Each structure stands twice: as structure tokens, then as C-alpha cells.
């Protein structure tokens, strides 16, 4: 088969090259030859990528991910190395979609994945999506830079505190490194002060006290400020579930609880 691959490559018959690579992949997979299987996929991806086959290269990575890496939870350095290569050589839209699914499945286990996306999106002027991915990779410097650009997109100074508060709250909800949220405000936006920003700055201390009653009391005092952002309470609910043993600020309806119990979400 190696000779056949070389012939197809010389003929620039890349589609058939990819199909034969898939056949060899599944052959090794069925025989549980993991090392050989990985080598076939890596060789195929590198060859197709260096020959400008943007769709075929992501096709092979998709096959490896769905048929092996995800099935047996073999999300390792080898897989991430392939992701890095395909990021540079694959179709941008498809790579972005694929990376989003990997981030969701792995629960953002490797921050290099959102970091690659974020820097590309930022360079292309896609500041809102870049900002989300910078939050995922905890890059405070670029969280601040992308936030500045987002603020410029038709929003007045009166809403700057909301953007900052939401970014700080997102950091708190995603990571236990509360200092990142405080650093974002103090180092990059020292001039932005408001009740909603003050509220978010208090959250780490309340969380460390493990006082859910106090959290609800403080939220009640800042209710009008919190209502300025329609998604703020949803993020706060995630914070409550994460740091207060699953307790909720937004109560589920009876139907939602019933569905969750059927789907395995009930306790």
C-alpha cells in the first residue's frame, strides 16, 4: 500500500490518496495497531497539508478524532500536535468549527486550542469571537485588548463597565484563579468604576466564605445593576453551581427538573 500511496502522490490524485489513507487507518485500527494507525494518519495529514489540500487534511483529522481519539478518550499530545498542523494548513471555517467541538468535548483541557483561534480571529478583526476565546485561554493581556476593540463597536462609555464586569465574571465562572479578574480591572481598566464592577470584585471573597445566603443577599442589593445585562444572572447561576455545591440562583421549572431526572441530571 505504501507504493500505491507514493504513486497516487506523484499523480497528484489527492482524493484517492486520502481514501487509501483512511483504508489503512481502519485496517490498523481493527487490528489494534495503535502506533501504526497514528503514523498512517500523521503521514497522510502532513502530506496532504503540505500539498495544499485544505479540506482533505481536516477530513483525516476528523476521522482520527471521531473514530479513535474521542471513542477511547485518547486526547493526548499527539492529537494536539495534529491540531496545530491542521490549524495552519486546513480550511479556516472547518478548522474553527472542529476546534469549537474539541473545546466543548474536552472541557477546554488544552488552552492552546482556543489561543490559536483567538489570535487568528483578533488579527482578522473578529474581536467578539476572539474575546470569547481569549477568555477560554485565560490570556488577560489579550482579553483586555479584545475588550477595548469590542467596546469601540458602537457602544457608549456608559456601557463600558458592563463589558468589564461581564469579562471579570466570566473569568470567575471559568477558573478558580480569581486574581485574573481583579488584575483585568486594576491593570487594564483602572478608570472604569461602577456599582456592577464593585459587585464582581466582591465575589471572590464571598465565594471563599462559602456563604450562599450572603451571596443571595448581596445579589438582591445589586439587583437593578445586575438587570442591566440580560445574561449576567445566567453567569452568576453558573458561579453558584460551581462554588456553592450545585446550589442555584435560577430555579428550574418543574418540567425542567423532571426532564433532567429522566436524562440523568437529577440527584
Mean pLDDT: 93
Subunit arrangement of the protein:
single chain
Question: Mind telling me the C-alpha Rg?
Answer: 23 Å
Alpha-carbon distance between the termini? 53 Å
Model regions low in confidence, pLDDT < 50 over at least 5 residues: 263-267
Structural class: mainly alpha
Note the main sheet. none
Strand tally, please?
0
Question: Based on CA inertia axes, which overall geometry fits?
Answer: elongated
Helicity range of the residues?
over 70%
Approximately how much beta-strand content do the residues carry? under 5%
The number of helical elements comes to 16
Note the run of SSEs as H and E. Answer: HHHHHHHHHHHHHHHH
InterPro entries: GET4, TPR-like_helical_dom_sf
Family: Belongs to the GET4 family.
GO biological process, one term: protein insertion into ER membrane
Q: How would you describe this structure to a colleague?
A:
It contains 16 helices and no strands. By secondary structure, the protein is an all-alpha fold. Helix 5 packs antiparallel against helix 6. The protein has a domain of 99 residues. 74% of the residues lie in helices and 0% in strands. The C terminus is likely disordered. The radius of gyration is 23 Å and the shape is elongated.
Amino acid at each position: 500500500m505504501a507504493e500505491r500511496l507514493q504513486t497516487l502522490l506523484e499523480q497528484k490524485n489527492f482524493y484517492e490518496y486520502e481514501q487509501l489513507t483512511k483504508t489503512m487507518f481502519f485496517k490498523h485500527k481493527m487490528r489494534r495497531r495503535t502506533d501504526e494507525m497514528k503514523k498512517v494518519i500523521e503521514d497522510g495529514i502532513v502530506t496532504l497539508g503540505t500539498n495544499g489540500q485544505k479540506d482533505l487534511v481536516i477530513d483525516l483529522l476528523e476521522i482520527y478524532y471521531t473514530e479513535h481519539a474521542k471513542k477511547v478518550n485518547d486526547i493526548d499530545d499527539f492529537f494536539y500536535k495534529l491540531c496545530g498542523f491542521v490549524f495552519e494548513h486546513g480550511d479556516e471555517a472547518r478548522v474553527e468549527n472542529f476546534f469549537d467541538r474539541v473545546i466543548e468535548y474536552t472541557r477546554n483541557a488544552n488552552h492552546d486550542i482556543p489561543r490559536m483561534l483567538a489570535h487568528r480571529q483578533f488579527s482578522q478583526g473578529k474581536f467578539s469571537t476572539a474575546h470569547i476565546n481569549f477568555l477560554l485561554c485565560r490570556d488577560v493581556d489579550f482579553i483586555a485588548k479584545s475588550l477595548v476593540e469590542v467596546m469601540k463597536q458602537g457602544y457608549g462609555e456608559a456601557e463600558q463597565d458592563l463589558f468589564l464586569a461581564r469579562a471579570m465574571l466570566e473569568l470567575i465562572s471559568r477558573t478558580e484563579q480569581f486574581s485574573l479578574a481583579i488584575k483585568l480591572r486594576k491593570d487594564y481598566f483602572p478608570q472604569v468604576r461602577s456599582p456592577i464592577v464593585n459587585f464582581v470584585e466582591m465575589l471572590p471573597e464571598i465565594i471563599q466564605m462559602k456563604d450562599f445566603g450572603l451571596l443571595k443577599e448581596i445579589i438582591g442589593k445589586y439587583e437593578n445593576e445586575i438587570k442591566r445585562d440580560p445574561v449576567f444572572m445566567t453567569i452568576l447561576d453558573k458561579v453558584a453551581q460551581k462554588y456553592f455545591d450545585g446550589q442555584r440562583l435560577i430555579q428550574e421549572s418543574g418540567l425542567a427538573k423532571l426532564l433532567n431526572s429522566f436524562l440523568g441530571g437529577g440527584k
